[in-house]
Amino acid sequence: FWVVPTVEVKIEVVIPEKERSKEEMSPNGKASPLIYKVNGTARHYHLEEHPIASNPYHNPKDVIEASVCHVKDLENGQMREVDLGCGKALLIKESGEFHAVGHKCPHYGAPLVKGVLSKGRVRCPWHGACFNIGTGDIEDFPGLDSLPRFQVKIEKEKVYIRASKQALQTQRRTKMMAKCISLSNYNLSSTNVLVIGAGAAGLVCAETLRQEGFSDRIVMCTMDRHLPYDRPKLSKSMDSHPEQIALRPKEFFCTYDIEVLTEMQVVAVDVKNKIAVFKDGFKMEYNKLLIATGNMPKTLSCKGKEMENVFNIRTPEDANRVVKLATSKNVVIVGASFLGMEVAAYLAERAHSVSLVELEHVPFKKFFGDRVGRAVMKMFENNRVKFYMQTEVSELREQEGKLKEVVLKSGKVLRADVCVVGVGAVPATGFLKQSGINIDSKGFIVVNKMMQTNIPGVFAAGDAVTFPLALRNNKKVNVPHWQMAHMHGRIAALNMLAHGTEISTVPYLWTAMFGKSIRYAGHGEGFDDVVIQGDLDELKFVAFYTK
């Protein structure tokens, strides 16, 4: 990861990661009743009880100790992946001290030995998650779990690691969490903490509260039919099923008494009386509120926009359906956004043809500038994606009720069996207009460095907010990144508990297309020059965005 001056942003293009295999999680403690409220009907799910996991060092048979190197084999600031026989660990030497932690990032399994070690932290080389080398704790995101930490001892100039076999195999550690003291005593229509939205910000908020010892009731509500899942995967790996991209299994929510109300939409918030009103008329009182509703995709305004086979990718079902309909067919994608470009890349080998319509003259012009945008565009053209630039859709034509053609304002008519719309998004905050919560002219919720709104006890996080960005002299910005949503959720939770913690993280995003991964650190809005190092034609470069 890069330390980026206020006016600089770096981009690196490298070969992308292999996807991690989904690992089973065995939650600690007993599963307690979890109440899902769907369409106003309370449903009680009692999952099977799980035995309480023992201390990993309690069972001598689970412990392994191995000599891994000589003390002089590592210099200060070096990392080495070492094999203990039944699993690997990451051995680190910094300031004359040795540390040992898990060697894989818990997010998607990146080898941390290829990451960056700096000031007591190791940062993941793929998506920028950051871990404390002394504790293994996650300190920057994405991802939810921390690294296991292993004991290190020095004897006769040799370095030994003592580790739990289970920890070596799982390569992840869920932080200790509190549980609700007595869930059965609560009134269904009252909660201490209500979280509106079940994306990364909402889930991290709930988990952080439990990690900090909060033992009162937490309720999350979502319009989605699924428990929280990895939304960025919808355009990067479009045939993923909900259970494959779930952020936590159902058992996790039961174990830690985090209630989730699915298919439940909040339509109004009464901040004076601390009540959230749902679409079906159900009302819930709260003490603290987090609004993390994210954004809603913009739709086309042309004739035919409502017909079958025209999609905004919002759910796993949307993504799955597009893949099925697009296979060996003609696809038109409207908008060279991150979503539009990722969908084009994913479908290029599967569809008969992929056409991309965009108002600008190059993709990603706003983010990456003209030169980088052209280099990315060339890569797409080399992979059979056809661009129609500086134009937009005037009409969608149907035949027998299904999409048949996309007509452009330039006059061009494109054959289309499927159309995916990726023309941007707007914050999902319409339900707050009469609430008294401060909303800016674009619909974003305005928060301070502690993710607090202008209303005491009401916090907001994620894609729907503008917040002061430390590295840009506290300029109020909207940063709709997956990593930033995680951090917003954590900061909001800490300040619900009156910790007084301010956000100071560096924004980070990534995208993967055609075997290349673009990583972007900082906030380059308003750049007036781009300094390129490396080879743009080969897509092996770093770009600095300066002002």
UniProtKB/TrEMBL annotation:
Gene Ontology biological process terms in this record: execution phase of apoptosis
Pfam family name, one: Rieske
Top-level division of the source organism's lineage: Eukaryota
Domain Rieske: from-to ranges: 66-161
GO cellular component: mitochondrion
SUPFAM superfamilies named in the record: FAD/NAD(P)-binding domain, FAD/NAD-linked reductases, dimerisation (C-terminal) domain, ISP domain
Protein family: Belongs to the FAD-dependent oxidoreductase family.
Name of the molecule in the record: AIFM3 factor
Encoding gene, per UniProt annotation: Aifm3
Native source organism of the sequence: Sylvietta virens
Lineage: Eukaryota, Metazoa, Chordata, Craniata, Vertebrata
Transmembrane segments: none
Record keywords: 2Fe-2S, FAD, Flavoprotein, Iron, Iron-sulfur, Metal-binding, Oxidoreductase
Gene Ontology molecular function terms on file: 2 iron, 2 sulfur cluster binding; metal ion binding; oxidoreductase activity, acting on NAD(P)H
